[in-house]
């Protein structure tokens, strides 16, 4: 049941005029929307959503698209997480260093930064490709790319081999997300879009679980975990045979070809048109905060567990395996629940207030998780909450970014926001690696400092428009 918020006496902090695809201005509200700014379509959408479940009326083809997009994203997540869960053994083997060498953590964060840069390049490239030539060929190309280069990591013998291959894997990962997120948003009706997009992004936890199980199964034989990564190539057959191009994209292509519409996938239009460039740049900043905090804070849950166990006298190999389980399974359960919950939260509170609430909650939970537990059991209790609050905002990117851009720029804009954020997050990762490797630096303090990124997200989302209940821009 959706509620309308109409509190008398509430004073708006600011109102900023900003051109929207169908509106002349948007109200930038801090907490509650003004009832006077509701459009007729919004009221009708809310009424419809309140009278029946969001999934009622969803067609079998729409469920099929969600399944295919989610399968691609599951393997995306596997490709990203498998390095995090095998990097100690990988770098020890490649660099011929001791397992406790500080260079392991430093080079690990550098390679994660390389991964983010590759995701940026792939997201920008394939987002534009998807707008110009279609969602289906772009999705097939990205899946093939990350599958093949993940499998080739099996043969890596030098650090630069790993760096190049992780960059190429990331290009496929970043491109697939931009295409799949746009496709799900275009296929589902407005009343179901937030739920479906949230589910799409939430399936990433399945990839994390698969990576965790693979990492625990192969142990020091890290190469076999990457060989598994070639399996997603089989998805291409499903994509090619089942996915159809959205009607909205076809219509935009027809208009562009006849000269009546805008050019498809144009970065010039995205970045120079004041109607869209503000959204693109602010969306990129929002994603940078989420991605930087994910790799610097959320993923560090594994390191927190390992450090706590070692300080309690547990041997290194046992500590590593327990840390993999704690992060890859226990924390990820909470993260998955957070991702699934973010869609309904967006429907209830609106996109902006959902983002604000979870950024603030994430900021609070970080020092609590770092400093409160003194035993493995206590940390296991906190980790699902830590995962829930720090990871949930990522589902919002799949929900929110496609709603900001018109048909001819949707994948381009979505890819620019999410994957452009990766390039900014890469610099955060370099800082994270330097901070955590500083002599005498307490890991808990380093993670708490990096957790200060979350309040910045509240500031960024404040200046973006609310899209709850609105049709996608045309």
UniProtKB/TrEMBL annotation:
Membrane topology (UniProt): Multi-pass membrane protein
Region (Disordered): 30-51
Tagged with keyword Transferase: no
Record flagged with keyword Acetylation: no
UniProt cross-references to InterPro entries, sorted A to Z: MFS (IPR011701), MFS_dom (IPR020846), MFS_trans_sf (IPR036259)
Signal peptide: none
All residue ranges annotated as the Major facilitator superfamily (MFS) profile domain in the record: 65-469
GO MF: carboxylic acid transmembrane transporter activity
GO cellular component, one term: plasma membrane
Subcellular location, record wording: Membrane
Membrane-spanning residues: 110-129, 141-161, 167-187, 199-218, 224-241, 280-305, 325-347, 354-374, 380-401, 413-437, 443-464
Entry keyword set: Membrane, Transmembrane, Transmembrane helix
Protein name: Major facilitator superfamily MFS_1
Organism: Pedosphaera parvula (strain Ellin514)
Upper lineage: Bacteria, Pseudomonadati, Verrucomicrobiota, Pedosphaerae, Pedosphaerales
């Amino acid at each position: 049941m959706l509620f309308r918020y109409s509190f008398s006496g509430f004073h708006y902090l600011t109102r900023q005029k900003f051109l929207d695809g169908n509106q002349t201005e948007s109200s930038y509200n801090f907490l509650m929307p003004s009832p006077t700014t509701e459009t007729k379509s919004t009221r009708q959408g809310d009424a419809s959503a309140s009278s029946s479940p969001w999934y009622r009326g969803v067609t079998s083809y729409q469920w099929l698209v969600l399944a295919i997009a989610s399968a691609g994203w599951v393997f995306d997540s596997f490709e990203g997480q498998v390095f995090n869960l095998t990097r100690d053994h990988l770098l020890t083997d490649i660099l011929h260093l001791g397992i406790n060498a500080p260079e392991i953590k430093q080079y690990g964060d550098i390679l994660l930064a390389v991964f983010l840069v590759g995701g940026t390049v792939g997201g920008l490239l394939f987002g534009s490709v998807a707008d110009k030539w279609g969602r289906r060929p772009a999705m097939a190309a990205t899946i093939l790319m990350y599958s093949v280069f993940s499998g080739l990591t099996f043969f890596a013998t030098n650090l630069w081999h790993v760096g190049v291959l992780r960059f190429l894997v990331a290009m496929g990962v970043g491109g697939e997300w931009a295409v799949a997120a746009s496709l799900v948003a275009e296929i589902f009706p407005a009343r179901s879009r937030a739920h479906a997009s949230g589910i799409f992004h939430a399936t990433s936890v399945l990839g994390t679980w698969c990576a965790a199980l693979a990492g625990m199964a192969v142990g020091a034989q890290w190469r076999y975990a990457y060989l598994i990564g070639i399996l997603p190539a089989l998805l291409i057959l499903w994509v090619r045979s089942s996915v159809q191009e959205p009607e909205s994209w076809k219509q935009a292509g027809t208009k562009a070809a006849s000269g009546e519409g805008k050019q498809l996938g144009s970065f010039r239009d995205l970045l120079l048109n004041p109607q869209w460039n503000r959204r693109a740049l602010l969306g990129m900043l929002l994603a940078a905060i989420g991605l930087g905090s994910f790799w610097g804070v959320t993923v560090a849950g594994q390191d927190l567990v390992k450090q706590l166990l070692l300080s309690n006298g547990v041997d290194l190999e046992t500590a590593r395996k327990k840390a993999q389980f704690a992060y890859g399974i226990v924390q990820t359960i909470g993260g998955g629940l957070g991702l699934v919950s973010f869609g309904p939260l967006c429907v209830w509170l609106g996109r902006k207030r959902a983002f604000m609430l979870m950024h603030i909650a994430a900021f609070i939970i970080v020092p609590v998780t770092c400093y409160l537990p003194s035993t493995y059991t206590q940390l296991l209790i906190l980790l699902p909450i830590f995962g829930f609050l720090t990871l949930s905002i990522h589902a919002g990117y799949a929900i929110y970014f496609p709603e900001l851009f018109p048909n001819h720029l949707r994948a381009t804009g979505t890819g620019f926001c999410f994957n452009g954020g990766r390039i900014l997050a890469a610099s955060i990762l370099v800082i994270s690696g330097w901070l955590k490797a500083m002599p005498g630096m307490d890991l808990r303090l380093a993670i708490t400092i990096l957790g200060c990124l979350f309040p910045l997200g509240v500031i960024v989302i404040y200046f973006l428009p609310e899209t709850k209940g609105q049709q996608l821009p045309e």
